[in-house]
Amino acid sequence: MPRIYDRTDYFFSYDGDFAVGPDKDIMDTSYDPLRAAHQEILSRIRSDKGDWVYNPAIGATLSRFVGMPNTQETANAMRQAMLASLQYDNTVDISDVKIQIVPVAFDMVAIRIELAYIRTRQNANSSPVTLTFLYDYQDNNVYPIENPGYSVN
Question: What is the pLDDT of residues 7-46, one digit of tens each?
């Protein structure tokens, strides 16, 4: 059975910038409790271990797959790296996560991550936590594809 993932965090854009809310204060995710889970998943997938000074153990380190063949074995290893990063410090229960990896070019894969969660009164109007993005081996970058309800900005 999925967990409850309702929590509030600072709102930040895809580039990591904070936003100012309508009250002229730093914006948070209280308007959508699942936005915090969305942000946490994306930041871990985009990060390498060591990127975060205060917690150097988080990050999927997809950069280690640069130059590897775009095969099912590589996709399985990438999936395991992402699951390990998401599971670290109990961020998510990996039984709640579904990851699909599909090759779209010689050096690029499409990745879709879905998080199952318990519906609550707080998250009743939240968008589902589904992230879709491209990972380009050539330039070692994650490019999010617009997800309904979650702007990349």
Answer: 899 888 777 788 888 888 999 988 888 999 999 999 899 9
CA dist 151 and 153 (Å) reads 5
Strand partners, 133: 111, 144
- 105 or 150, which is more confident: 105
Q: Which amino acid is at 105?
A: A
**Residue 25 tokens, joined:** 């204060």
Instruction: Give the tokens for residue 71.
Output: 């095969």
Per the prediction, the chain carries an average pLDDT of: 88
Reference 76, options 52, 38, 39, 103; nearest CA is 103
In contact, 59 and 51? CB cutoff 8 Å: yes
Answer yes or no: CATH 3.10.450.40 is held by domain 33-145: yes
Annotated domain spans of the chain: 33-145
What is the C-alpha to C-alpha distance for residues 19 and 27, in angstroms, rounded to an integer?
5
